[in-house]
Design brief:
The structure is a single chain. The protein contains eight helices and eight strands, in the order H-E-E-H-H-E-E-E-E-E-E-H-H-H-H-H. By secondary structure, the protein is of the alpha+beta class. An eight-stranded antiparallel beta sheet has the order 1-2-8-7-6-5-4-3. Strand 5 (75-82) and strand 6 (86-90) form a beta hairpin.
């Protein structure tokens, strides 16, 4: 089995719903284990200098109640930070983002490994969900957690490599496998086969740049 296929299979994915103050929210949950101690993983997901090396540059007042901004991407408020176990932030993008939160939870395993759970809860416009399903955010988080794995192993991509990785054979293989896995998770949550297949194809086309 190739390294990319192994990476896809290391992730557990789940799709669901949750009631929030503004209505019914969609949820995607990712879980995987890293070969790194919890203190190292926590530092990698909370240190601005390290976040920039595996994800993207971040600025702001990085403490509870402060606001952060990822370069060219989401921003929001740091809602909760319990070292080294839990980080919860609002995740807002665009002029009218609505409700959206991301929570990262870390659990030590056998002392030298760490289980990471990432849950993204958001109220999604129905037309967007109908077109892309959970893969719209799911594939993006899969890519991010793969970047974290490379970083923790000392194999991170340069900024230039990361910008074009989705066009490489490995990048396309990863995106396709990730998209298909989110389609399976969507079907497991109760979506019919046609909807899961249609949204999977749209997601893969979007991320690989082949969208019509």
């Amino acid at each position: 089995m190739s390294e990319i296929a192994e990476e896809i299979n290391r992730l557990h994915r789940r799709v669901g719903t949750r009631q929030v103050e503004t209505g019914e929210a969609r949820t995607v949950l990712l879980r995987r284990t890293y070969d790194a101690e919890i203190a190292d993983v926590w530092d990698a997901v909370t240190s601005p200098e390290r976040i920039a090396r595996w994800f993207m540059p971040v600025s702001g007042e990085l403490k509870v109640g402060g606001r952060y901004q990822l370069e060219g991407n989401a921003g929001g408020e740091i809602l909760e930070c319990v070292e080294p176990e839990r980080l919860r932030v609002s995740w807002l993008f665009g002029p009218d983002p609505g409700f959206s939160e991301v929570e990262v939870r870390l659990t030590p395993e056998d002392g030298e490994r760490t289980v990471l759970e990432l849950e993204h809860v958001s109220v999604v416009p129905e037309e967007f969900w109908d077109r892309f399903g959970p893969g719209a955010v799911g594939v993006g988080w899969d890519l991010g957690l793969y970047g974290l794995r490379l970083h923790l192993a000392g194999r991170g991509l340069s900024k230039e490599e990361a910008a074009t990785w989705h066009t490489t054979p490995d990048g396309r293989t990863f995106i396709t496998g990730s998209g298909e896995s989110w389609g399976e998770a969507y079907a497991d949550s109760g979506a019919d086969a046609e909807t899961a297949a249609r949204t999977t194809a749209a997601t893969i086309a979007f991320y690989t740049g082949t969208e019509a």
